[in-house]
Amino acid sequence: MDTVIRMNRRQILTGLASGSVVAFAPGCVENPTLGRSQLILVSEEQIAQLSAQAWQQSLQRERVSRDPALNAQLQRVGRRIAQASGLGYDWEFVVFDSDQENAWVLPGGKVAFYRGIMETMENDDQVATVMGHEAAHLAGRHAAERASQQQAAGIGLGLAAVALDAGDVENTAQWAAILGAGVTFGVLLPYSRRHELEADRFGVDYMVRAGYDPREALDFWTSKAAQRTGRPSVPEFASTHPSDETRIAALREYLVARNYI
Ligand SMILES: [Zn+2]
Q: Which biological process, per GO, is one annotated for this protein (predicted)?
């Protein structure tokens, strides 16, 4: 995630200014995927521009893995999930050669998985678990919604809003450091937890549509939770992510409701 926050304020403002010529009516819009309305104050063009810059910077800063097996696996799963999502982006799937257990997505279909997280995945279905989750963030327009919430909260459009999921699995405290703590806890974090739970649900739908086994999603998140047991953790109220228990319980409930298990 720190790859994405290095863009300076001037670059952000320049990006926004150049996007401002596009006709755009901000406000509450219905998202048919989510079945709820969203406050969207930023245009697709604004988000796309920030996203493209952040992606280029990440490719320059991180070491891209050339491991043939990991790359083949990520491409294979990525293509299937992308197709299942129906999102017609110019998708890119890149493995970063780092021990971090992390994965994230930028609007426009730019997906990064770190070697560290891929090495904990036992099969394609588990890769598809996280891939589906990332694609669901895009379908949910979570970046635009988060950016809009930041604007509404008077924070301004920061890069924290653009990269999603840096720290899907690890690293929960960073958002709080980037954003003002009061506003963060009061306004933004509940939405971030909501985003995570939404992404889990719709991500599993993509998995199933792509022919993967949704039970692996439960196994994956459960094993992640087990690894964390005993480590100091951020309390749920102070985290951008739901607690493991909340997340796993919600996922299990959804799998049952959809007759996936
Ligand atoms: Zn997420």
A: proteolysis involved in protein catabolic process
